[in-house]
Design a protein that fits this description.
By secondary structure, this protein is α+β, with helices and mostly antiparallel strands. The protein contains 19 helices and 15 strands. The chain folds into three domains: 135 residues, Sandwich (Immunoglobulin-like); 279 residues, no CATH class; 124 residues, Glutaredoxin, CATH 3.40.30.10.
């Protein structure tokens, strides 16, 4: 059967146009690479010979054609994923001990919402070459790898060789310029180091304040039941023998141990080159299964179906260590585990101060990341270590009574609601079938605990149920992700379109959310989906983009990292007068959104612009 002529014509048309485009691109590359390259590079030296010096000042000069750039390192974030500065390899050089590269200041650019630094025109990168011996010739052999970019990017690899012989040294025509550039770089490094020290201290303060405010975020509301659980238990015991300090210290220890573990895990992932973010464990079905087991255990405990007790040997050890009667410390294990659980439930969303501090922390490495987690844990556990050091007469419980038992039951139902929320997240990250089996396991566990009040042997079967609930998320096959972008006006997140839309005089509102982020839900209900919010966002020339980070997505993770963020919620507004974007607070209101839209679409006076920037 013959092909229709129309199809043959269409195929022929695409072949011809595709070939023409290929030829045009090839001619353009040939024009730049063979006859008039968009760059040139050479080595400069500040001396004609080595003399008695142990190091000499040299430079790498790039000359770029108009509109062409080479990338530069981001001095505030040398490990940035968007830094593609020239790589300089001198391993084949002779008589070279080491080379210090003094990167000059660069220009800042934004493309498709991503921030990067680059050099234009002519730039000289000073090199301080440390010699092995001044009596032998210096043969500087540099292997350069970089990209030169305009509308297209050309990967470049070439080698340069420069020889400086031993003997009497004289200055060259480049000496004064290289010395000036070295001095400017040194001043920049000193100022940068001072600024970096101030920034580091400020970010640590932000981490501590973020930890404190985390106690009041919507994501942490389920943890209130855990904070009151210990009081409810102790309220039923002898009031005159209550000792608060061990209880507070146990919860404080649980929180700090959790943050130490999370910090160590973040350092390990960073060392292995994996992406690190705040709340990413809520994207793991196995972690959610573990958390559902914990919420079910605590709810059963609050309903009185079973008691969490320390082993007798451990309680006796605590008696000897603290000198108290062991009955007053039987709940210490609850307090310790409550601290761990509070930390785990506190990590899905970011709080004010916390988002900025975490983004900065994850741009660091090693011990610096670890220190941020310690400071964050100290802030989050502030109510507990304050409770441990305040005078005893400040720490009084209400008189015990039957209301304590009622409160305990109510808090158990709060944790049951938390379990349902976690099951919903599990259905989003894995599948509805996985959530069904884990939820069924939770119901069986509660039933066995209830039945075990009269038949103690039945409780042992819960070990099998726990294993089942932990294994199901590991072996289940995830269903294809179903990204919910909300109402019709919200479209799929495509960062590459943002700059194009802005050039078309459009205003772009970006919302990065996830099923496990309760703070995101608050912003959605109170702002985006409110009547006033829908009316505000339905204006002409406003484009809405929503990204769903319920499951891990490198595109979203890298986009957040480009703005120094490691967690969500993250909302940003772009417009003709805000091409680099205006970032909204973690929790915002209609007025904040309206102001951002106004700044993005209307020219601002210098005074209002400076206030907006601050």
């Amino acid at each position: 059967m013959a092909f229709p002529k129309s199809i043959v014509c269409i195929v022929f048309f695409f072949i011809i146009t595709g070939f023409a485009g290929f030829v045009q691109k090839a001619q353009a590359q040939a024009r730049y690479s063979s006859h008039h390259p968009p760059f040139s590079v050479e080595i400069l030296s500040s001396t004609t010979a080595l003399g008695e010096a142990t190091e000499i000042l040299m430079g790498l000069r790039f000359k770029l054609a108009p509109s062409w750039k080479i990338y530069a390192p981001d001095k505030k974030n040398m490990s940035s994923a968007f830094s593609s500065a020239p790589e300089i390899n001198w391993s084949r050089s002779k008589n070279v001990q080491n080379i210090d590269i003094l990167w000059p200041n660069s220009n800042k650019y934004s493309i498709e919402g991503l921030i990067f630094h680059a050099y234009e025109g002519e730039v000289i990168i000073p090199l301080v070459v440390k010699l092995v011996r001044s009596q032998e010739p210096l043969v500087l052999h540099l292997h350069l790898t970089y990209s030169v970019c305009s509308k297209v990017c050309m990967p470049i690899r070439h080698e340069l060789t420069f020889t400086v012989a031993p003997g009497s040294a004289n200055s060259t025509s480049a000496t004064d310029l290289l010395r000036k550039l070295k001095g400017d770089a040194a001043k920049g490094l000193e100022a940068g180091a001072f600024q970096e020290e101030r920034s580091y201290l400020m970010m640590l303060i932000f981490a501590f304040l973020g930890g404190i405010t985390l106690n009041f975020m919507p994501c942490v509301l389920p943890v209130i039941s855990l904070k009151m659980m210990s009081i409810a238990k102790k309220g039923r015991s002898s009031a005159r023998h209550l000792h608060f300090r061990p209880s507070f210290l146990a919860t404080f220890a649980g929180i700090m141990m959790s943050f130490i573990f999370l910090g160590g895990l973040a350092v390990l992932l960073d060392t292995l080159g994996a992406s690190v973010g705040w709340g990413i464990h809520f994207q793991q079905p196995s972690f959610l299964g573990f958390l559902i087991v914990l919420t079910t255990l605590f709810a059963s405990n609050l309903w009185g179906f079973y008691d969490i007790e320390l082993p007798l040997s451990v309680r006796e050890g605590i008696n000897k260590l603290l000198g108290y009667e062991h009955e007053h410390h039987a709940g210490l294990v609850e307090d310790f585990v409550a601290g761990i659980f509070a930390t785990l439930l506190a990590t899905p969303c970011t709080a004010p101060f916390l988002g900025t501090a975490l983004g900065y922390a994850f741009s660091r490495s090693g011990a610096e990341i670890f220190l941020f987690f310690i400071v964050l844990g100290a802030g989050f556990s502030l109510p507990y270590w304050l409770g441990a050091i305040l005078p005893r007469y400040w720490l009084k419980l209400p008189k015990p009574g039957s209301w304590m038992l009622t409160l305990s039951h109510i808090l158990g139902y709060v944790l049951a609601v938390t379990t349902l929320w976690l099951l919903w997240i599990l259905s989003e990250t894995a599948s509805g079938v996985t959530a069904f089996y884990v939820g069924a396991g939770a119901l069986v566990m509660i039933f066995l605990f209830w039945l075990g009040q009269k038949r103690s042997n039945v409780k042992k079967l819960n070990w099998l149920v726990v294993v089942f609930m932990l294994v199901v998320p590991l072996v289940s096959v995830s269903s294809p992700p179903v990204n919910s972008y909300g109402k019709e006006q919200w479209r799929r997140f495509k960062p590459e379109l943002i700059s194009t839309l802005v050039r078309q005089e459009k205003t772009v509102v970006v919302d990065i959310t996830a099923a496990w982020c309760l703070t995101c839900k608050v912003n959605k209900v109170l702002v985006f989906d409110s009547k006033e919010g829908e009316k505000l966002l339905s204006q002409k020339d406003i484009v809405l983009m929503r990204a769903d980070w319920t499951r891990h997505d490198p595109l979203i993770a890298n986009y957040l990292a480009s703005y120094g963020r490691a967690g969500i919620p993250f909302n940003i507004v772009f417009g003709p007068y805000a091409p680099e974007g205006i970032i909204l607070p973690e929790i915002f209101n209609i007025e904040s959104l309206r102001n951002a839209l106004s700044q993005a679409t209307k020219p601002q006076s210098p005074l209002s612009s400076s206030k907006a920037m601050s």
